[in-house]
Amino acid sequence: MPSLPPPPYTPHDTQTASGDDEEDELWRMLDALEISPARRPSTPPRSAPVRTVVLQRLLARPPAEAVAETQGVSGASPRRIVPKSKPRTKKGGYAVFCGRGIGAFKHWNEEVVDLVVRVPNSLFQGYRTLAQAQAAFDYAHARGWTRVIHEDGTVSTTISWPPTPDTHHQGPAPNPLHVEGSGPFWYVVYSGIHPGIYASSLECSLNTLGLSSAAFEACATRAQAVSLFDAAVAEGRVRHIYPTLK
After folding, report:
1. Which Pfam families does this entry report, sorted A to Z (predicted)?
2. Among 220, 183, 219, CA closest to 202
3. Are 105 and 50 within one domain?
4. Between 181 and 18, whose confidence is greater?
5. Could you report the per-residue pLDDT of 59-99, keeping only the tens digit for each?
6. DSSP per-residue string spanning 4-61
7. 170 lies in a domain?
8. Does residue 48 carry a pLDDT above 90?
9. How far does the chain reach from its first CA to its final CA, in angstroms?
10. Is the pTM of this model over 0.90?
């Protein structure tokens, strides 16, 4: 007697499934979508509700699980879940040390952008308050570390020449330039406006940025920086550089 053909595959209503029956039905649906390579149905599903039910289940799971299990599912669009970045602290003031104009300013768009954006060797720093920005600028300006950059590339500065005797080789005390900490490195400036040891990359940049013959090095500790600077002094490798004036 000839055998009867198997009944057509009909998706089970998972809204009412429970226990082992529900788990078995989920496996059948995953097999139909080719998520598991171990088993495949003999005939493809003829109904769209299977995909809809599976995706509804995945949407109810944590994002990481949903992304992992929708890989290879036709019609699904898994996306990498990226945590939102922390909002940046709003700046209350900006110190423009090198730019088309220099000084302390309150507003980025209205005052600072045109002074530094697309200006070679411009240098600025944001601070929590306008008062902090003004103190930082005044500190740098008094040492001749500020420069007006003209359109032809030349600069104007207030630096006195020859510079005063250097005292930075023992390591500078905290100053308004880095009111929120000096960072993990010490910087040895061998050739720059004021050679010496500095506790922040900002101070290093103020002494070397835009100077083609400047030389500096970052160190993990102040003791290492002092040793390197003293050795450079003994070997005659420390040199003051005067910025080009208009």
Report:
1. Cauli_VI
2. 183
3. no
4. 181
5. 455 544 444 444 444 554 444 444 455 556 779 999 999 99
6. PPPPPP----TTS--HHHHHHHHHHHHHHTT--TT---SS----THHHHHHHHHHHTS
7. yes
8. no
9. 107
10. no
